[in-house]
Design brief:
heterotrimer, A mainly alpha (about 210), B alpha+beta (about 200), C mainly alpha (about 350), B: alpha+beta, 6-stranded antiparallel sheet, two-stranded parallel sheet, 8 strands, about 20% strand, C: mainly alpha, 3 domains, 4 strands
């Protein structure tokens, strides 16, 4: 693969076809796990792991997999990696496993994973499939981290558990709703709105 | 071969077999840890409220073993409380309590000395109160107040007082701003304690 | 409402809105008199934030800013506790203007009353700032005219409003000789204070009680309210049906001994109910437009207010109720129109 192609993949996954603000996929986990930055980082790492390895496996098997059962095979592979992560968290980081609740298991149904397998991995060589998957997962991750940063700083006055000046002080009434589920709706909406506006104005300029 | 009718079935079977073997093997390998972790919040809560039982350096698996070896399971005589015994005599009780909080159930363990007059500690190990407000009751700043707290002889063993007020026996300062959670937690603690004190064998 | 085309202007003139602002003046004056000059600063700041928020959106639509935004911000400021922080205020105003008005398409297109939706948002976001800290009203003839705020007196900050105290059973109304004539501000946990009925009544009418900035005095609200009522700026149907339904329902429940429902006079005068009835429930944009629907609208709000005020954990009963009423407004209108059409058609069939 040439540098140009890699750049193209990165541009598509991170910006032009961003899973969150363009495709609007995987929103349920976006809303659920972004209350604390640490939770979000772990969730994003889990997603990068699952998406990239699933895409790789699907891509390696693509020449053998019969077309009519490909979706079942894909789901099986995705489920396998997700269960592995789930068990690892349960065994070695139980606190995090509790924080994320069912949302690790729900990566199986996260449309981004299935979407990348179907859209790219099933018909492309392993290297390309994996890169595409990684960039998409990173596109998901950076939006989630932005949302989580706002939510944690405004809601708890902390960032990664450390107090942020002013926001952890007594003059800032902690914006409780931000760390509760409804807060995610507002922040997600504003973030998607902002990015879409920037993107659209870029497209207008190109024309 | 790919065109054969049996191929998809075979293929599915083989992939499933490989994947399942891997998953089963892995979860077998971590089974003990996962089990210890699942019970850990409750067991640690019990160990923490009993005097001198909790050692922060131990791993979850070791704490799990310690719990199983040294804590006696509840019996009819203890009215649902776990007990710590030395040479057969009860040193302290750990009573699991639960009740409705502001949003959902609050679950806690409360430690009581053998004389049933002093609280040795409380750990709230499961709650979904409002973060930053009601959820503060689970924090050390609040629960530390229960260490060696003498119960009041009046009809309410424990009473919550507003922050800054002077405290007497059986009184603690409530978390500021968390009126609803405080009222409910106070009720949960008192209801359970009163009920337990009636039932437990002297 | 008259829609003027004035794309080049910065601010759109709206006659009705000016009348509402005029009617709010007594309450604004009251808030300064009882709680100090900080109240005025809060109202002005809220107006500025609201204006700039709307300006951004109005620009993209190339329309002028409507004067209605000042009604929103002023009402919003008046129903804040006097101790409210400026960041809470800013967030509330931005939310009120942006999320309840502008994203729906600007003036005249919002489903909910913006001031109340904003207040509801901050109420849920900052429960401590909104419900746990009240400052006492200033004493004496001069009031707080010489002060920036009354919140700096030592016993301030953690009191409760008389309404909340009565609901919690800490303040008991009685006609005994030994009951106090002064409304207590801070009652120690576990104690109860007996209060003379006449004292509470006087407090509620003059407004010398702790509470939200501009809504403590029934007398001042009524000056502005009657002006709106007489000039027909606010819908008379809504005002009458809401107040009547609320008073009747309260009195019936009180007579049948349902705890903790207060007597009608107490309920109507207390907790800013009149302010809600005159200034917020009548908001022409979010209220129904047909007359029969307005009656039902008033009744729905009244019933919800009684239920929420007395039986829920929240104190902001009227706020939630008006928002619930807003939700039903379009449906009520549709039902009324449906029956009207049916009526109009029937003679034709007969003929």
């Amino acid at each position: 693969m040439t540098n140009r192609q890699i750049k193209q993949l990165a541009y598509e996954g991170l910006w032009k076809n961003n899973p969150i603000f363009v495709q609007v996929l995987g929103i349920c986990s976006t809303l659920a796990v972004t209350n604390l930055v640490l939770n979000t980082i772990v969730m994003c790492a889990a997603l990068v792991f699952t998406v990239s390895l699933s895409a790789l496996t699907v891509s390696i098997l693509r020449d053998f997999t019969p077309r009519n059962i490909r979706m079942m095979i894909e789901t099986l592979i995705i489920a396998f990696y997700v269960i592995i992560i789930d068990v690892i968290l349960k065994a070695y980081w139980p606190q995090m496993s509790e924080n994320l609740g069912p949302y690790v298991g729900l990566i199986i149904t996260n449309c981004i994973v299935m979407g990348r397998c179907e859209a790219c991995a099933i018909s492309n060589p392993p290297a390309r499939a994996m890169l595409d998957a990684i960039f998409n997962a990173l596109g998901y991750s950076f939006i989630l981290l932005i949302i989580a940063t706002f939510r944690e700083v405004l809601g708890m006055g902390t960032f990664l558990g450390f107090g942020v000046p002013y926001f952890s002080g007594q003059y800032w009434d902690k914006w409780t709703i931000m760390v509760m589920p409804p807060g995610a709706f507002f922040v997600l909406a504003i973030v998607v709105w902002t990015f879409r506006t920037v993107q659209m104005s870029q497209e207008d300029k190109k024309k | 071969m790919k065109e054969k009718r049996w191929f998809p079935v075979m293929y599915m079977f083989v992939i499933t077999a490989i994947v399942s073997t891997a998953v089963i093997g892995f979860s077998q390998y971590t089974r003990e840890r996962v089990q210890a972790n699942m019970e850990r919040t409750f067991e640690i809560a019990v160990l923490k409220v009993l005097p001198g039982m909790f050692e922060p350096d131990l791993s979850f698996v070791e704490l799990h073993k310690k719990f199983q070896q040294e804590i006696d399971k509840p019996t009819d005589k203890t009215a649902g409380a776990y007990t710590l015994r030395k040479n057969g005599t009860i040193e302290a009780y750990a009573l699991p309590i639960e009740g409705q909080g502001f949003w959902a159930k609050i679950k806690a363990v409360i430690g009581i000395e053998a004389d049933k007059k002093t609280i040795t500690g409380i750990v709230i190990y499961e709650q979904t109160e409002t973060p930053g407000l009601g959820a503060e009751v689970a924090k050390k700043e609040f629960t530390d107040q229960f260490e060696n707290l003498k119960m009041s002889a009046q009809d309410k063993p424990i009473a919550f007082r507003r922050a800054g007020e002077e405290l007497q026996d059986g009184q603690v300062h409530a978390v500021t701003g968390a009126t609803q959670t405080s009222t409910r937690l106070e009720k949960i603690i008192n209801d359970n304690l009163i009920q337990w004190l009636e039932k437990v064998e002297n | 409402m008259k829609q003027e085309k004035a794309a080049h202007k910065l601010l759109q003139k709206q006659v009705i809105i000016r009348r509402v602002l005029l009617a709010l003046l007594p309450c604004i004056a009251g808030s300064i008199y009882f709680f100090g000059w900080r109240s005025l600063a809060i109202i002005i700041w809220a107006g500025m934030v609201g204006f700039f928020t709307e300006l951004i959106f109005a620009r993209s639509r190339s329309k002028p800013v409507t004067e209605a935004v000042f009604v929103t911000t002023t009402i919003f400021a008046l129903i804040m506790p006097p101790t409210v922080g400026f960041h809470v205020l800013t967030i509330g105003v931005i939310f009120a203007v942006m999320f309840t008005k502008e994203v729906f398409g600007g003036f005249g297109k919002n489903i909910f009353n913006p001031a109340l939706a904003g207040r509801c948002f901050v109420y849920i976001c900052f429960p401590i700032a909104m419900t746990a800290t009240w400052s006492p009203p200033a004493d004496g003839f001069g009031g707080a005219l010489g002060k920036w705020t009354t919140a700096d007196s030592p016993d301030a900050i953690t009191g409760a409003t008389p309404m909340a105290n009565i609901k919690a059973g800490k303040l008991v109304l009685s006609s005994d000789e030994d009951s106090t004539g002064k409304i207590p501000f801070d009652i120690t946990e576990g104690n109860t204070v007996k209060l003379k009925k006449s004292a509470l009544l006087r407090g509620l009418v003059t407004g010398r009680i702790s509470g939200t900035m501009g809504v403590t005095s029934a007398f001042l609200i009524l000056i502005g309210g009657m002006y709106l009522f007489v000039t027909k700026t606010a819908s008379r149907t809504i005002i009458i049906s809401l107040i009547a339904a609320y008073a009747v329902l309260n009195q019936i429940l009180y007579w049948s001994g349902v705890e903790p429902v207060p007597q009608a006079w107490n309920a109507v005068l207390g907790g800013g109910f009149l302010f809600g009835a005159f200034f917020m429930a009548t908001d022409p944009v979010s209220a129904p437009r047909t007359e029969p629907a307005k009656i039902f609208y008033g009744i729905i709000i009244a019933v919800c207010t009684v239920v929420i005020r007395n039986f829920s954990i929240f104190n902001g009963g009227l706020m939630f109720s008006i928002l619930i009423g807003n939700m039903f407004a379009p449906t009520l209108d549709n039902i009324v129109r449906y029956f009207k059409e049916k009526k109009n058609k029937q003679p034709e069939i007969a003929a």
